[in-house]
């Protein structure tokens, strides 16, 4: 884990806009994001895995490595993920292009991306890609540090989504809340 923290800090200093967090997600946040996932979820896709804290929680929840796809843009994180998670598909590709390599029918998309810090068009492209691959009724699981959902109300309406607020994770720096989005 020390290697993960060193890698995170190095990438944060080199590219703060892309990393967009003060610290890696805590194990408490990671567990909350993976809550409800397991061997019967089917394929799971993760957007923005970084050092893999959420990835580890997804695998620990029982999702088989062969059914997990990661989408990461940072070269150093991609190399790290390949080393840390054999058997997991790591795509050096933007989340907005997930539907180019993953077939529809995904059981859950788990996202650690800083959606609110992105331009609206990028944010909506990413969320749209998630729902193009998600099975009907399957969730997009996303966290945010702010007091509101990680998608503004107009995006939720434009994309035809329903949002379900989840747990507030106080043991994270900063505290975060998990949300699940569903297509209406």
Helix-strand layout with pairing:
Layout: H1 2-14, H2 16-19, H3 27-34, E1 44-47, H4 53-60, E2 68-71, H5 75-84, E3 89-91, E4 108-111, H6 120-133, E5 140-144, H7 153-158, E6 161-169, E7 176-183
Parallel strand pairs: 1-2, 1-4, 2-3, 4-5
Antiparallel strand pairs: 5-7, 6-7
Helix pairs in contact: 3-4
Strand order of the largest sheet: 3-2-1-4-5-7-6
CATH superfamily: Vaccinia Virus protein VP39
Helical segment tally? Answer: 7
What is CATH's topology name? Rossmann fold
The number of domains: 1
CATH architecture classification name = 3-Layer(aba) Sandwich
Main sheet: strands, sense, barrel:
7 strands, mixed
Give the H and E element order: HHHEHEHEEHEHEE
Secondary-structure-based class equals alpha/beta
Spans where pLDDT lies below 50 across 5 or more residues: none
Strand content: 15-25%
Described by the principal axes of the CA atoms, the overall outline is globular
Characterise this structure.
34% of the residues lie in helices and 20% in strands. The protein has 184 residues and is an alpha/beta fold. It has one domain (25-183): Rossmann fold, CATH 3.40.50.150. A seven-stranded mixed beta sheet has the order 3-2-1-4-5-7-6, with helices on both faces. Helix 3 packs across helix 4 (53-60). The radius of gyration is 15 Å and the shape is globular.
């Amino acid at each position: 884990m020390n290697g993960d923290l060193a890698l995170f800090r190095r990438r944060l200093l080199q590219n703060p806009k892309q990393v967009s967090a003060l610290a890696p997600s805590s194990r408490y946040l990671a567990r909350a994001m993976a809550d409800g996932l397991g061997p019967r979820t089917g394929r799971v896709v993760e957007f923005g895995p970084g050092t893999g804290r959420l990835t580890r929680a997804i695998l620990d929840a029982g999702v088989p490595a062969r059914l997990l796809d990661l989408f990461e843009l940072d070269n150093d994180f991609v190399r790290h993920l390949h080393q840390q998670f054999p058997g997991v598909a790591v795509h050096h590709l933007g989340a907005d292009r997930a539907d180019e390599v993953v077939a529809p029918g995904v059981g859950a998309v788990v996202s650690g991306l800083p959606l609110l810090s992105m331009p609206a068009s990028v944010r909506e492209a990413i969320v749209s890609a998630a729902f193009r691959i998600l099975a009907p009724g399957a969730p997009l699981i996303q966290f945010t540090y702010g007091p509101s959902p990680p998608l503004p109300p107009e995006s939720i309406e434009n994309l035809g989504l329903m949002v379900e607020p989840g747990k507030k994770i106080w043991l994270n720096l900063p505290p975060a809340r998990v949300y699940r989005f569903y297509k209406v």
